[in-house]
Design goal:
By secondary structure, the chain is of the alpha/beta class. The chain has helices at 12-19, 26-38, 75-78, 86-97, 135-151, 163-175, 209-212, 219-235; strands at residues 56-57, 63-67, 118-122, 157-161, 192-194, 200-204.
């Protein structure tokens, strides 16, 4: 494997530099690179990133947001999580309203966006076909997420976007030896799972078009769950 998720990383930049060289999952490598060549018509004049996407934000974050994977024409194009797609528009507007983001838009690296007290990442680091990683891809990528979350040692609230992110964070916590309730609480929007050390695992529907176009997730619902996170941070 090019890039070693089992290595010990000095910091998040060190981890990110190793991550972008990873070619462990042949299907994901082929897909992310195919998309970067074929492109969407609206972005035909842009150079796509077409590699694994590292997390983004404040290395001292107390709020860690975990999604599913980079979007094919979003982060796989821009190289930054939730950047350049509809899901990111929803997420960053909400983070801005809550004071975690310097601006409500996220178009490309270098656009002036800064996060304060928040870090955004994903359970799978490459864009998967139809946004559906296989079990093997999920498991191979989990090592990267574990290394990343271990380095985010100021985290108090883990906000999982969707059931996939929820399961990935739960698995990390279990493997790190954190005492967890049994059985695992069923994923639900607004679910709070208290953790040892004053930490909390918080769940939200993913701001995907499938959820936002159908009204399963509304602006108010997303604002409410991020406000939950703010209250939890204030109380910690």
């Amino acid at each position: 494997m090019i890039g070693d998720a089992d290595a010990t990383f000095g910091d998040l930049s060190d981890l990110g530099a190793s991550l972008v060289a990873c070619r462990s999952c042949a299907r994901l490598v082929a897909w992310r690179e195919q998309v970067a060549v074929e492109k969407r018509a609206a972005f035909r004049d842009e150079e796509y990133w077409g590699k694994p996407v590292a997390g983004f934000g404040d290395p001292d974050a107390r709020l860690v947001v975990v999604g599913l994977a980079p979007a094919a024409h979003g982060a796989n194009r821009t190289g930054r999580m939730f950047t350049g797609d509809r899901s990111g528009e929803w997420l960053y507007r909400a983070l801005h309203r809550a004071g975690f983001a310097s601006q409500p838009t996220s178009e490309r690296p270098g656009d002036g966006l800064r996060l304060s007290g928040a870090w955004i990442t994903s359970a799978v680091k490459c864009a998967p076909p139809e946004n559906r990683p296989t079990i093997g891809e999920r498991d191979r990528c989990h090592r990267w997420l574990c290394s990343e979350l271990a380095l985010l040692d100021h985290a108090v609230v883990y906000l999982s976007l969707g059931s996939f992110g929820y399961a990935a964070v739960w698995r990390y916590l279990a493997e790190s030896g954190a005492p967890l309730p049994r059985p695992r609480p069923r994923f639900a929007h607004g679910l709070e799972v208290p953790l040892a050390g004053g930490r909390t695992l918080l769940a939200s529907f993913h701001p995907s078009q499938q959820n936002t176009f159908t009204g399963r997730l509304t602006v108010a619902m997303l604002d409410d769950v991020i406000e939950q996170a703010r209250h939890l941070l204030a109380a910690s």
